[in-house]
Amino acid sequence: xxxxxxxxxxxxxIAATGSEASNSCVITKADENLKRFCDNDxxxxxFAIENPExxxxxxxxxxxxxxxxxxxxxxxxxxxxxxENDILTDxxxxxxxxxxxxxxxxxxxxxxxxxxxxxxxxxxxxxxxxLTGMGRTGDWASHFIGHELSGEYQSVTHGAGLAVITPAWMxxxxxxxxxxxxx
Length: 183
Prior knowledge:
Blueprint: E1 9-12, E2 24-29, E3 34-39, E4 47-50, H1 60-78, H2 87-109, H3 114-128, H4 141-152, H5 158-173, H6 178-181
Parallel strand pairs: 1-4
Antiparallel strand pairs: 2-3
Helix pairs in contact: 1-2, 1-3, 1-5, 2-3, 4-5
């Protein structure tokens, strides 16, 4: 496990990856079709510039893929094996789900909607900074499969892979989380 890193700053150009707040990074070795992640607090950015205007020219496909990644990060913490549910953490996840769905619909029709871009940006930050996983064990099966898929097939965007994988995963985990599926 690495113990030091070059200080990192980011300029957010897509709300998806959580690079502005996450302790994770993905290392790609394209010539070997390999993707690996490293979760370590030394990966956290020292500063981040977040300006919704920098995302207004994103194609709808990339916007949608980013939104799926945000939701997936929160799904994998929301549907947790811990049965001691934390109400605040559940509500944070649910707010992210609603924000992504509502603002995603807006952005598909109006890609330059500042408020929707800003809200998606904040949802990304909250989904990735650890708050939605407080006191929980995340189930990262979808992400692990997604990384393998996009590592093997570089044409598969991470969010697009998650859009296929996550619903199948949810069919499995909802059975142990029926109380959350009724709301």
